Amino acid sequence: EQQRYLNAKKYVKLFLVADYIMYLKYGRNLTAVRTRMYDIDNVITPIYHRMNIHVALVGLEIWSNTDKIIVQSSADVTLDLFAKWRATDLLSRKSHDNAQLLTGINFNGPTAGLGYLGGICNTMYSAGIVQDHSKIHDLVAIAIAHEMGHNLGMDHDKDTCTCGTRPCIMAGALSCEASFLFSDCSQKDHQEFLIKNMPQCILKKPLKTDVVSPAVCGNYFVEVGEECDCGPPRTCRDPCCDAATCKLRQGAQCAEGLCCDQCRFKGAGTECRAAKDECDMADVCTGRSTECTDRFQRNGQPCKNNNGYCYNGKCPIMADQCIALFGPGATVSQDACFQFNREGNHYGYCRKEQNTKIACEPQDVKCGRLYCFPNSPENKNPCNIYYSPNDEDKGMVLPGTKCADGKACSNGQCVDVNTPY
Q1: Strand partners, 288
Q2: Domains in the chain: ranges and CATH
Q3: Close Cβ partners of 88 (under 8 Å, ≥ 6 residues apart)
Q4: Which letter does DSSP use for residue 260 in this model?
Q5: Known catalytic residues?
Q6: How far apart are CA 165 and CA 57, in angstroms?
Q7: Binding residue numbers for Ca(2+)
Q8: Which of these, 115, 156, 244, 258, is most buried using a 10 Å CB contact count?
């Protein structure tokens, strides 16, 4: 599973924000600020392409009336405020994986930016801030790539790290020289982070229509108006795609995709993805497109020796969820512990309505907080929950989990598996 995750193409749906000082700095000219940000995005894209990550700019916001947070010269305070604003305001308006604030303010000391280590896909911590510290947009783009690198699990380079001649992107200090490469250490950090955490949001490919930056032929991503994109003409080796126009060559039906072979659609019924497990199904080509549509067993089909029911292609059971939260020795707590879910507080509730925690009804107690027994020498408490104020949903029983014979959790209720849920 880890190898399949590592090999999968990754996509970071990026949202860029420019603050009010940026707007003033560029003469209150929205087009100038926008162009600056598009230019920066066009530098970030090829940097991450080398890491098998496509960065797609899915949102851009310029604070042209007033700042939506108090931007200040203390970088850590500003990052904290920006991350909270993203979590509570921006995410509810626009789906994205990572947000970066570009500011015209001068941060204290030598700091040009700040980002949370390993924050990608986290509601609270997938964010960074960067000072617009140079007229040369390449250098500012590299600073954003650096903070995104932190979010993607990369630490600062040590003296022994190398990427060729120049200092690399994750160097601890700013350089006047532009470096477009990650070091061997950064690549190792990133790979280890991916294996350990397997962040899911970056597996989802954005739609062409999600991208807000003007289409650029040669950036490896098929955008509106393009049929294919195999990168710059000097490096493209794709026989199906004309790199200069991003159009299919004469006679070609397709250039990429699991149902494309030698520029032609694979025949209808050709298997394009094997079934991963008992809740999945083998996927087949239609003969009319390159898409390999993911199909899975119907929700409610018994799985894992009748310990669970299939739900959206997975088999969620409490035992696995306890192990994921508390480690390999953990088991599900006794039924009595789940009665805490009738309290309607941080430690026990079934769902939230307008941020109010709703207590579980007696029949729904196994669809609220998950209670586990860690079974470790230092923790003999029989009723444990995982609780984090920054991510309250983590530690709740997952949707689709079996809560009784013939029943599964849906919206904090234990419902019959034969009803749609």
Answers
A1: none
A2: 1-203 (3.40.390.10), 215-256 (no CATH), 314-416 (3.40.1620)
A3: none
A4: E
A5: 147
A6: 30
A7: 216, 219, 221, 223, 226, 229, 280-281, 283, 294-295
A8: 115
